[in-house]
TrEMBL record:
It holds the Pfam family TetR_N. This is TetR family transcriptional regulator. Residues 34-53 bind DNA. Keywords: DNA-binding, Repressor. It comes from the Bacteria. Residues 11-71 form the HTH tetR-type domain. It comes from Pseudogracilibacillus auburnensis.
Length: 205
């Protein structure tokens, strides 16, 4: 029987699992990290893990969401209080993909086995919430741009779906091929920028 924890202990242990899980997943990846290693790193019994997460995949996914939030904060710096141009929007999309590449957790999503494992183990409603979070992040920018006439008036949800699709495409590096990957992504990004941004900015920011 797993130990009963106080509410304060639960908050502390859950946070420790996230912190130590991030270290283990960065080093060994999702597939090679066991629940036993996760619980040992925070000093709880293996069975106690399920008081906090349904599976190691759910813990991993929570870490992914936190890393995505950090990336979104970085991306905000490219856009906030700046006039939208095609070049700036393309820069924003490029930065999003490069952030995926350089992040030791997010870059593991290039491994299709990881994606398959997450789709099997993480509840569907939790996966759906991720799309809602992306919409909440991007929609205010898109709405503002549309109101001032620098972005085509397409449903913001569709534009967010286009951006998510671009990120998903970037995960197909193996199938696109290393030789053509960078140029393929550059062309897609430029087509999106040209198709969505309808007015170049003035000379001021």
């Amino acid at each position: 029987m797993s130990k009963k924890f106080t509410d304060q202990e639960k908050v502390y242990i859950r946070q420790r699992l996230i912190e130590e899980g991030k270290k283990l997943f960065e080093t060994f990846g999702l597939m090679k990290t066991s629940i036993g290693e996760l619980t040992k790193s925070v000093g709880i019994a293996q069975g106690s893990f399920y008081n906090f997460f349904m599976s190691k995949e759910e813990l991993y996914y929570e870490i992914i969401e936190q890393e995505e939030e950090k990336v979104q904060n970085e991306l905000t710096e490219v856009l906030i209080n700046k006039t939208l141009t095609k070049d700036r929007f393309a820069q924003f999309l490029h930065l999003g993909i490069k952030s995926l590449d350089k992040n030791p957790i997010l870059s593991q999503l290039y491994d299709e086995r990881v994606m398959q494992q997450l789709s099997r183990k993480v509840p569907v409603e939790k996966l759906a919430l991720n799309a809602d979070k992306d919409l909440s992040f991007f929609a205010p920018f898109i709405t503002d741009w549309q109101e001032i006439g620098v972005m085509k008036k397409i449903d913001p949800e569709v534009i967010v779906s286009m951006i998510r699709s671009l990120i998903l495409l970037s995960l197909q590096r193996k199938y696109i091929g290393e030789a053509n990957f960078e140029e393929t992504m550059t062309q897609f990004i430029q087509m999106m920028a040209d198709g969505l941004v309808i007015e170049e900015a003035s000379t001021y920011d």
